[in-house]
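Its record is set out here:
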Amino acid sequence: MSDVVTSTIGDHAPAFRPSYTKVFLAFARNSLVRDMTFRSNFIIESITSLSWMAMNLAYYILIYQFTVSIAGWSKMEYFLFLATTLFVNAIVQALFMPNCEEFSELIRTGGLDFALLKPIDTQFLVSLHKINWSSLWGALFAAGLMGYALWYLPETPSPVAFLLYPFYLACGVAIMYSLMIALAATSVWLGRNQTLYDFWFYITNFSRYPLEIYSGAVGDPIRVLFTFIIPVLIVVNVPARLLAKPLDGQNWPLAVFALFATAASLWLSRLVFTKAMRSYRSASS
C-alpha cells in the first residue's frame, strides 16, 4: 500500500494521465443524478440554504435602519462584502465541504484504500468526488445581491477592479479549501476529528467581518493572527474592497500579500496531505 501511496501523491508520475476536467465533470454529473434521485431532500436543502442567506441579509438590513455605516462601510458597500462572503461560502460548501467531512469515514471504512488505487491524484479525488448542488443556490443569491449593491453604489468600481475581483474570489476559495483539506488530512493520525471541523467553523467566522472592526487591545492581535498567520481575513476583505472601496495605498499591499498567502496555503495543505498519506496504513493492515 505504501508504494501505491507514493505513486498517487506524485513522487512518481503514473503511466495513465487522466483528463482532470473530464473527471470533474463526471463527478458533477453523478452528483446531480444522485441529488435528483432524492428530489425532496434536494428541495429541502435548497430552501434551507436560501433561507439562511435571506436571514443574514435581513439582519444587516435591520442594522442599517439605525446607522449609516459599520466600521466605515456604507450600506451598499457592506452588501457587497456580504455578497462576497456568501459566494465564497457557497462554493466551499458545494465543492469541498461534503468531501472533507467524510474523509475520516473513508479512513475508518477502508474506502481510502480504493481511492489510492485509482490512477489519479488522491487529493483531487477525495476533494471533489461529491458535489452538493443545493449549495450552489447560494452563489446565485450572492450574485443577485452583488448586482443590486453595485447598481446603487455611489461610485462605479474601475474596470481593473472588475477584472481582479473573480481572481481574488478564487484566491479566497483556495485559502478556505487549503485550511479544510489540511484539517481533514489529520484524520489519518487522529481518527475522528470533529473537534477540528468545529475549529474550522470558529476561525472562519472571523472572515465574515471587515478588517476595520478588529482594532484595539483585543482586535489588533486578532487581525494580525488571522491575516498573516492563518489568513482567513484575506478571504473576503480583499475581493470585497476591490469593488466597494477605492484602489488606494491601503488596499494594494493587502492584495499583493493575498497572492503570497494563497500560494503558501496551497503549498502547506499539500505538504500536510502528502505527509498524511505517507503515514496512512491500509484498513486491512
